[in-house]
Amino acid sequence: MDLVRICHIVCMSSLQHANRVIGLLCVLSVCTICWIYYNVSADDLVQFSNRRVYITNTQRWNELLNGSREAVWPKTVNETDDRIQSQIRFMEYYASLPANRTMKLIHLVGRFNFESAREGQHKFVVGDRCPIQECSVTFNDALSHVADVLLISEMSYFNWLHYLPKPPHQLWIAQHWESANHDRIQTWLVRRYINWTVSYRRDSTIAISYGKYAHTRNASSSEQDIDYSIGKTKQVAWLVSNCYAQNSRLEYAHELAKYIDVDIYGACGSLKCNRTGADSCHNRLVRDYHFFLAFENSNCKDYITEKLYDAALQYVL
Predict the structure, then answer these.
(1) The pTM is what?
(2) Total count of domains within the chain
(3) Based on the domain organization, do 297 and 199 belong to the same domain?
(4) 166-191 residue pLDDT tens
(5) Which segments of the chain are extended strands (E)?
(6) Is residue 25 domain-resident?
């Protein structure tokens, strides 16, 4: 029997059993996931309800919590609560008190929203000059099991396995910048391991935001009223590149166009404009249009992004 015939027989035999092999591998994968998920005991996963275990001076920490807990970590969150300011003031006050704080190692999991991050203390000491600077950042997976915190922006089944079993001392923090429709964390995998959340939602453990309104000065009655409509000849404009948002914003704009003129610029419309120059998108919209549309790509609780702060509001003047 020659070599070619042997190879032919082996290949045909492999093809005949391929479906069985693939099926067996799928069953083994599912069994592995279930075993890991249900057999890592709660004793191995020490869950922390607050940061008390990380503060060396518990008396001072308790004094702070007695007057600030509801402002920083409220049981319920009202629509008018500004938790970001409360949390900043809380940390600034705590940082001003003498404390024997030890260095904490933060391991960043995933590159999304961490593109500009640098390893070490640069972000805390030089970059943002945080009130509490005893923190260091790393991307090194070899240090993941000795890190105090996993700050997670992306996690799938394949890298989730790398971080198990979860060390008893370690906090897992899920960071969400995108809406739930575009989240990069497989929540069904990690939900029993997550201690804190950091997101745009006001009921997150740590509340973050793309922007906010701030009072800058009092209005003066002597200031002259300005008519911003002078010279504008067109009605409504919209700049958009993602034509497949799940909240039907494109369909809404088309429906609106039945009743008022709506000029759509970008990939989803017929009009184009330049990024820079005298005839840039910004200059054209400010000069010609009474109104500018700004839609998020998802309708989620508290999800307000640069679509409002960096896009819509810059065309007011």
Answers:
(1) 0.71
(2) 2
(3) no
(4) 999 999 999 988 888 888 898 888 88
(5) 104-109, 135-138, 149-152, 171-176, 196-199, 206-207, 234-239, 262-265, 289-293
(6) no
